[in-house]
Design a protein that fits this description.
With 262 residues, the protein is mainly β. The chain is built from one helix and 17 strands. A 14-stranded parallel β-sheet has the order 2-4-6-7-8-9-10-11-12-13-14-15-16-17, with no helix packed on it. The chain has a three-stranded parallel β-sheet with strand order 1-3-5, with no helix packed on it. About 13% of the residues have low confidence.
Length: 262
């Protein structure tokens, strides 16, 4: 569990460590010139081995090495990764990734990704992605995507892009694009595009295009086109076209075409 420096084993060709459960310090076979295979079939946790650098840099002195076998059961890579209550078949890679309450079959890759109570079968990839209480089957890919600042990313929600679905993304919502569905995206809503559905997109709304439905898009509305339904689009309204229904489009209204109903 401490530092391991087997740097005088010049004739060693195979290193097999079948029963380890933890490497707490550094494993650095820096001068094992004849080594061709490292096999670590049952290691469940690597503490600081990888966080100090890549595998290649750690074993850079082993010129003959051709095989480095990590186990199928490898669950934790990085300082604090999967630290508390990590469940079966889950993966935590990165400093404090999946740190607390990492549920079964979940994946957390990146600094503090899925850090607190990541749900079962959830995926969080990126710095801070799905950090707080990510729901079951949710997907967050990108810097702080599905972050869960005040309220967690809901079950089955999808957030792809930097800070997409950042705060209070509800269940079954989809946000794709930088800051799409950033704050309070309603259930079953869709926001696709840069800042689409950015603030308070309500349930079952659709916003597709740059800044489409950006502010306070009401339930069951549709905004397709850049800046369409940009501010305060009314309930069940439809705006199709660049800047269509751009500002205060009324309930049940329809605007189709460039600047229509603007």
């Amino acid at each position: 569990t401490g530092n391991c420096y087997p740097n005088a084993m010049a004739a060693l060709t195979t290193l097999n460590l079948p029963a380890l459960t933890t490497i707490g310090g550094y494993f650095a076979p820096a001068t094992m010139a004849a080594l061709t295979t490292i096999s670590l079939p049952l290691i469940q946790r690597i503490g600081t081995t990888i966080t100090s650098g890549s595998v290649i840099s750690i074993i850079s002195g082993t010129a003959a090495l051709t095989t480095f076998q990590l186990p199928s059961s490898l669950l934790q890579v990085g300082n604090g990764a999967g630290n508390l209550n990590q469940q079966y078949l889950s993966v935590a890679i990165g400093v404090n990734a999946g740190n607390n309450g990492h549920q079964h079959s979940s994946v957390a890759v990146g600094h503090v990704a899925g850090r607190d109570s990541q749900g079962a079968d959830a995926v969080a990839v990126g710095v801070g992605a799905g950090r707080y209480n990510q729901g079951n089957y949710a997907v967050a890919i990108g810097e702080r995507a599905g972050y869960g600042g005040d309220t967690a990313q809901g079950a089955y929600a999808v957030a792809v892009g930097a800070r997409a679905g950042y705060n209070n993304q509800q269940g079954n919502a989809i946000a794709i694009g930088r800051q799409a569905g950033n704050n309070s995206q309603g259930a079953y809503s869709v926001a696709m595009g840069w800042y689409a559905g950015n603030q308070s997109q309500n349930s079952a709304a659709v916003a597709i295009g740059e800044e489409a439905g950006r502010y306070n898009q009401n339930s069951e509305t549709v905004a397709i086109g850049s800046w369409s339904g940009h501010e305060y689009q009314g309930w069940k309204a439809v705006a199709i076209g660049s800047s269509a229904g751009n500002y205060y489009q009324g309930d049940w209204s329809v605007a189709v075409g460039l600047n229509a109903g603007r």
